[in-house]
């Protein structure tokens, strides 16, 4: 018995593709219930999603629409509210798909069997694939990072430790494990990492499937990516403060405690952003103005080059982007460092949650292919039978587009650091500092491009 949940909030661009894909999962209808958990506060979006659910109900899908009046706790609160439904007791597993995720029909057939005859398994996590990874330079650079995350971090930890961070979507949970670990909590903005850590401390095991992929979108604008990364780096620091006493007191082995503290929390979320920001954005440019200070070439060149090379290995087709990747990661260290500090010291921005803007690029092609594969579901997909609604939506978009224009945002922190780095590069050239000049020049240009929002799509 499988419960499928699709949490969403004002995501008009992608709701059809996720609902359509989930309703076409290959699983006995009587053994599956789909919950569309709509937290939208836009009445038009609510109406569109509700009518989409009703159309799939008419097609025979076992699907329900839920909307919360009080939207406390963001996504965690939404999931917690859904799990409190009386009928949840009839289900053994729960699957979560964010609004832009489109599982293949065989997703459940390839994930749920891993729970069979192994009562210690709490989570089976699938890998993500990206429909827009080649859309622009920003999405290409994100793809490098996420390939390393899946291929190395999650796969290695899954094999050797039976533990990794839940990605918040495209995963199957044993409901008993969720309940025994305390369920969804709204105490941080990374509810997925929170439940994973608590389940690990309770002795549950995880399975990562690198060969099962679920298609989704990458943020295409720097503004959307920056807000996503802020949440992904402030939330873990919030959680670290809360979980550290529990980790120390837990009954898991010393090795697993060390992995949780130093590798899972501190290395990627605290040490690396701190290292990149302080060394390359502050210390190195300042040494150009202090003749007595000198940084050896191996600090400036070899360490970042080695780190970039290791990160790019899981995505060999991205090797031409190794230099832009290095420069962009150093540029992003400003956002990550700021997020890490706000999460560690519980500053106001640590609790900021902004839904990542989606473009819906994957919807048209996938819906057409879905129709071609299974003509009987064309009405449920709602491409040909929503003429009037689609015309009205187009008219609304035209009216809105007349008022809204896309533009570049200005990011003052990045521009300030661009000025510092370019000034330091000029100083380096005058003092014949050699290789430092090239690094400072290109890093300064990278900050300038990001500060003027010249990477990725513009925003409205």
TrEMBL record:
| Signal peptide region | none
Protein's cellular compartments: Golgi apparatus membrane
Keyword list (alphabetical) reads: Cell wall biogenesis/degradation, Glycosyltransferase, Golgi apparatus, Membrane, Transferase, Transmembrane, Transmembrane helix
Entry membrane topology: Multi-pass membrane protein
InterPro entries, per this entry? Answer: Glyco_trans_2-like, Nucleotide-diphossugar_trans
Which GO BP terms sit in this record? Answer: cell wall organization; plant organ development; pollen tube development
Presence of keyword Transferase? yes
The residue ranges crossing the membrane are: 260-289, 435-455
Q: What GO molecular function annotation could you give as one example from this UniProt entry?
A: glycosyltransferase activity
Give the matching Pfam families: Glyco_trans_2_3 (PF13632)
Q: What sequence ranges are listed for the domain Glycosyltransferase 2-like?
A: 94-300
Q: Which GO terms describe its cellular component?
A: Golgi membrane
Keyword Protease part of the UniProt annotation: no
Q: What family, per the record?
A: Belongs to the glycosyltransferase 2 family. Plant cellulose synthase-like C subfamily.
Q: What is this protein called?
A: Glycosyltransferase 2-like domain-containing protein
